[in-house]
Amino acid sequence: MFKRRKWVAVVRDDSWVIAKIARSKNEIKLLKLKTCEIKQTNFDIGQIEQGTQSPINSDADNILKSWLRQEKIPLTKLVIALSCPGVITRMITIPVLKPKELDKLMTEQVDQYFTLNIEDYIVDYRILEKVEEDGQERQRILLAALPKFQWGKYWLQWEKIGLKPRAVDLVADSLARLYGRLGSPTAIRGKKAEKPAIVTDTSKVKVEIGAAASENAMEERETGDHISEDVAIIDLNSGRAEFMLLEHGVLFLYSDLELHLEEFADSVLSADHASEPGIVTREWVRSEIELTLMPALRTITDFLNFFAARHFGKPIDRVYLTGEYANWGFLPELFESNLEVPVQAGFPHGWRPKFSRKLRGIQKDWMRYGSLYGLALRED
Question: What's the pTM?
């Protein structure tokens, strides 16, 4: 049944999660799963330009290289998703242009759509859909900018350890692909296949930035297989949360938020396993986490209000939680009570991945690896 196999990896700062995944349409089975924590220090711009690294980073790179060799990870077959701070997205609507004219606009004049020095970023674009406004056909385009400094840091490390990934994606793009496809009424039957994503060849490795779910969503609109809901996705991980809004399966807005839920991991575990009431209770943990979440909740509320204002008052239909802490049972109710929107942990239509017999011990963490599942759905 699961004939297509792929090596995928998600990289978040000092954390690597690598999996070998088998896939049949929208069904996914994890065959292998490996994790590694590699402590990194910051580079400065001079080091990036000169191609040098500090001794501390060299030690970390050697540890990573040894780990990859020990786990027999194929260094030329990995498809990687980066969780990269500072990624910026913009949605623009312009008249329909010929491909060459559009490419020229997006390369030579793209700075007009940003309020920052775009020379410090790698910029990619994707046509989301064609619309009619005032009797004129126009096209909506998503722009995404990845800081060159961040990309340089990763590339220096990969070059040193001999890693040559098949393609590089963004975590936001992977999650948009996953939820966009699963949001279709026919998702579980796997009726449709996503078209190959546009890839930008940057120097020595392919870097893809954009809304990978968009082409699939456009095809569904044309054939009448509509994605009915507008949804938000909150990817909860150590140090950061990534927030995405999907409009009928198409990435509408992205942002990352500083959030340190890892500080409560031990307390949540203690409260869940306490045989009798103690100092650490579920109520205390919930109240402390809610206080920590308040700045992020206010920001997310602003994003949801922005979406509603752009859609004649229509609110988001649902919020999904995924990531490292999505399985904390009280979080959906906590988010829902503050956001006043239905909140669900996991994925649409009750979708879940399968695990090989050797990995059944980690099945309880199935909500944690949404980015890996989204990478597995790429058609390359």
Answer: 0.82
